[in-house]
Amino acid sequence: MPNISNDLLKEIDDMADKYSGSVRNLSPVEKTEKLKKMEESFAKAKELSDDKVQLAMQTYEMVDKHIRKLDFDLARFEADLKEQHEQELAASDEENNDSKSRSKKRKKSRGRSSGADSTRKKRRTEEPVIPPLAAVTAFIPSPDVQVLDMPVDPNEPTYCLCHQVSYGEMIGCDNLECPIEWFHFPCVGLTTKPKGKWYCPKCTIEKKKK
């Protein structure tokens, strides 16, 4: 197409030169015919030029469309990589937090067990000489008396909302900053250990405030 349009423009230039050199010797009919032929050539050249412009615009739009698609795919790929990286970091942080929480709970459990063993040993060493059977039967508590009514060693640590010592099934709060840490199942309305993370009533309220 470029060669055709260039040849056509050259042909128009030649016709214009010949027309200018012979216009005085031409009859009115010949002048009209030559002018009409040049006009037709100009119209054809314009049509070819318009086609070239249209083709150039289509090519530009096609290239621009592919560039925009590549930019979109690249941005989406980078976003996916960023999201994957954030998920891996979050999973790693959660794993580290769970590991620290389990380690802290094991330390607390060992401390509570050793404290309970120490208390039991202390109680055994402080037990008085066994009195006669009659005296023992006189001080047997009734079935209605609960174990919690027994005197508690003031040195034994207390837990839960009830501020009592460790007994029965207990659950630890998953908030590492929880001041109480351990709770009796009945005091927090539990009968079985819940799945996933568990927060005590106080920490739950604090989390909702944030």
TrEMBL record:
GO MF terms held by the record: zinc ion binding
Keywords recorded for this protein, A-Z: Chromatin regulator, Metal-binding, Nucleus, Zinc, Zinc-finger
Annotated GO CC locations: nucleus
Region (Disordered): 85-128
Stored SUPFAM superfamilies: FYVE/PHD zinc finger
Subcellular location: Nucleus
Taxonomic superkingdom: Eukaryota
InterPro entries reported for this sequence: ING_fam (IPR028651), ING_N_histone-binding (IPR024610), Zinc_finger_PHD-type_CS (IPR019786), Znf_FYVE_PHD (IPR011011), Znf_PHD (IPR001965), Znf_PHD-finger (IPR019787), Znf_RING/FYVE/PHD (IPR013083)
Gene3D superfamilies for the chain: 6.10.140.1740, Zinc/RING finger domain, C3HC4 (zinc finger) (3.30.40.10)
Primary site of residence: nucleus
Subunit structure: Component of an histone acetyltransferase complex. Interacts with H3K4me3 and to a lesser extent with H3K4me2.
Protein family according to the UniProt entry: Belongs to the ING family.
This protein's name: Inhibitor of growth protein
